[in-house]
Structure to design on (688 residues):
């Protein structure tokens, strides 16, 4: 078994993760056997990512734990960062595909059936360009004909660009020439506002369209457009495809002139507030904002809107005035076609995986709810709660009595305890009746993917626009990792964390659970007690509950970290700009210490005897249980970055992991590091 290939190890784990949790229990005679397979698979999974060189854990522990990661999950394949926790997302998608493929008659509600129809139609039809095209012609109503123009005069005399653009917005949600959205008000958290102005242009900012430095990127973009057109219209000449592609780029270059020069400006800095009447006066009937809104939202607005960026609309006016209608029409049709084309299955992606992602994009809650019912995550919820209880207990005991936190005054510690006691885990609740009601009126058919897509887009758009009359909801935001929310003092747990056999299984060593889940929960918890979190109390109200003595001790202790981390200005010759560096450092170091102590407490209370400890070790790996804890911790952060990355907007994981470990005396002891080893910091900084 020592020769098990790394790749097959990860596949095996994925397979095992698909089985129901009751699997090993339901095979009483084979209980030992299945237990051993599960433990072997987990060990192989861990081992697969470890360095194959002469092990030097005291020199560079991240390398020791993760050196093989980039080989198995290279970032260059998708030009996207890969990391360990993303495996959880993949696992969720794979299980969802499995779930949507097979109907489990009897337990399905109408929402389940609807998302299954969407999934199946996607699976069968998403690659059918003919179907996409027919749908396009139906929804766009270009009566002059396209791509072959039968009535050119229609475009010249009757083509009403604003009407075309407005009706495509309400049918497909696509922003062509004009961007429209509903956003929370910048000042008043209770209301939404309509935002009108520039659409998101495919190439990006002004400089991508207008700077000489991006010439090649533009050429590539133009070629991609021509290729896609050719794919949809094989009968059209190459010249036609190239001409239309050139027209598209040219219009977008003209539009980009209305975008801000400085791409780093925030939305707020480039926005002005105006009434519809004012905009109508400013842009006359060439860009009749009032008519556009009337067509899209079908009501007259008296409140002010956000207009952003400020120069866009006046520039658009020039573009409309100076561009032939045929060219505007080509642009509009192309953008619509491209919107439908986004649903086509990309090369190299399995249809099942792709179609789950489509379902997840439009029906995230319905998918989660079905997943929740199908995989019965109750056992994982209990396990998470109990890990959380352990983490919280350790921190609470520190606050109550420990020598370690004497730098906080008794009064501040007292208030910290009441904030901690109020902190709750929050699992996403699904009200199925409400989810079903949301879908009411949405018609989907097994065999008509592109029709379905249009219906879904229309449904999504009208829901988005309807937010205008509703209050912004915090719960609308969904995070991929556990997330602590300052303004509610709650920690949201994403459903992907409720999957068995990744962090945790009854037959895995508990060291793995505390080193991963324990650390993640502790990190989030500490965000409530750092230099930002201390300004919010246990109810989430803005209210600084620290006294000045505690604040200055915090600042003094941060100084130690700041000096230690100050050397990390770049990594792999790329600059590091981490805006939340101090919070991150405090959470990294504190979470490691708290989770480790929670693990030790668990060990002390665990059933006595060799049997208990035997389970704390794994086959294939020669590690003690203390060593396993730190190994699991480090692997949580295995990742690979693409070469194209310009800078790191967060301190890169290898530096985070190694520095936090080098501050931990327990780590040094577990791996027997000596004085002078890189992983054994001479001055160990400590906060929590
Ligand atoms: C399972 O393992 C235990 C000890 O590890 C042993 O005593 C028991 O006989 C085994 N059961 C089976 C069915 O092999
Ligand atoms: C689109 O572009 C082609 C190629 O330049 C041109 O022949 C046609 O008239 C344009 N307009 C429409 C609506 O197709
Ligand atoms: C879908 O079409 C794309 C592009 O034509 C192709 O690369 C891909 O392999 C197709 N996928 C399937 C599942 O047919």
């Amino acid at each position: 078994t020592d020769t098990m290939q790394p790749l097959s190890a990860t596949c095996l784990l994925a397979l095992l993760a698909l089985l129901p949790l009751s699997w090993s229990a339901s095979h009483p005679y084979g209980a030992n056997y299945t237990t051993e397979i599960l433990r072997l698979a987990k060990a192989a999974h861990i081992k697969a990512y470890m360095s194959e060189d002469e092990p030097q854990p005291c020199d560079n522990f991240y390398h020791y734990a993760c050196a093989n990661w980039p080989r198995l999950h290279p970032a260059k394949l998708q030009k996207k960062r890969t990391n360990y926790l993303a495996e959880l997302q993949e696992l969720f998608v794979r299980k969802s595909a499995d779930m949507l493929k097979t109907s489990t008659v009897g337990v399905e509600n109408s929402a389940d059936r609807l998302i299954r129809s969407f999934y199946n139609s996607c699976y069968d039809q998403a690659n059918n360009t003919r179907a996409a095209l027919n749908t396009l012609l139906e929804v766009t109503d270009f009566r002059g004909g396209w791509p072959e123009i039968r009535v050119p005069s229609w475009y010249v005399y009757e083509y009403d660009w604003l009407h075309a653009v407005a009706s495509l917005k309400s049918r497909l949600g696509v922003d062509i020439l004009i961007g429209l959205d509903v956003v929370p008000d910048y000042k008043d958290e209770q209301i939404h506002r309509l935002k009108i102005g520039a659409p998101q242009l495919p190439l990006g900012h002004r400089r991508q369209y207008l700077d000489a430095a991006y010439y090649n990127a533009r050429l590539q973009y133009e070629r991609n457009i021509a290729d896609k057109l050719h794919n949809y219209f094989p009968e059209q000449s190459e010249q036609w495809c190239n001409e239309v592609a050139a027209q598209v780029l040219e219009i977008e270059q003209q539009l980009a002139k209305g975008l801000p020069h400085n791409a780093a400006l925030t939305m707020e800095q480039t926005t002005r507030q105006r009434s519809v009447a004012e905009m109508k006066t400013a842009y006359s009937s060439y860009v009749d904002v009032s008519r556009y809104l009337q067509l899209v939202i079908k009501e007259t607005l008296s409140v002010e809107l956000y207009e952003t960026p400020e120069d866009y609309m006046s520039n658009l006016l020039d573009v409309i005035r100076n561009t032939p209608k045929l060219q505007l029409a080509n642009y509009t049709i192309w953008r619509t076609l491209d919107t439908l084309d986004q649903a086509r299955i990309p090369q190299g992606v399995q249809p099942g995986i792709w179609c789950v992602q489509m379902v997840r994009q439009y029906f995230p809650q319905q998918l989660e709810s079905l997943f929740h019912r199908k995989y019965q995550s109750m056992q994982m919820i209990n396990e998470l709660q109990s890990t959380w209880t352990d983490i919280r207990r350790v921190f609470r005991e520190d606050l109550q009595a420990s020598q370690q936190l004497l730098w906080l005054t008794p009064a501040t510690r007292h208030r910290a305890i009441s904030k901690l006691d109020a902190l709750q885990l929050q699992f996403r609740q699904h009200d199925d009746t409400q989810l079903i009601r949301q879908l009411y009126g949405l018609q989907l058919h097994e065999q008509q993917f592109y029709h379905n897509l249009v219906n879904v887009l229309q449904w999504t758009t009208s829901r988005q626009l309807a937010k205008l009359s509703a209050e912004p909801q915090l719960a609308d935001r969904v995070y991929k990792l556990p997330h602590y929310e300052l303004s509610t003092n709650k920690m949201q747990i994403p459903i992907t964390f409720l999957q068995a056999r990744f962090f945790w299984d009854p037959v895995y060593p508990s060291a793995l659970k505390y080193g991963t889940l324990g650390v993640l929960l502790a990190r989030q918890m500490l965000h409530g007690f750092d230099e930002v979190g201390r300004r919010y109390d246990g109810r989430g109200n803005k209210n600084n509950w620290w006294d000045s003595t505690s604040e200055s001790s915090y600042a003094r202790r941060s100084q130690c970290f700041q000096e230690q981390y100050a050397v990390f200005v770049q990594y792999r010759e790329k600059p590091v700009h981490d805006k939340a560096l101090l919070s991150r450092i405090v959470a990294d170091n504190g979470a490691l210490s708290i989770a480790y102590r929670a693990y030790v407490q668990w060990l002390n209370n665990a059933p006595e005897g060799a049997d208990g400890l035997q389970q704390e070790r794994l086959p294939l790996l020669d590690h003690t249980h203390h060593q396993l804890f730190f190994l699991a911790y480090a692997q949580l952060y295995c990742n690979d970055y693409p070469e194209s990355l310009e800078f790191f907007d967060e301190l890169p994981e290898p530096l985070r992991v190694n520095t936090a470990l080098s501050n931990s005396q327990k780590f040094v002891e577990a791996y027997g590091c000596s004085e002078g080893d890189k992983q054994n910091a001479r001055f160990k900084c400590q906060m929590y």
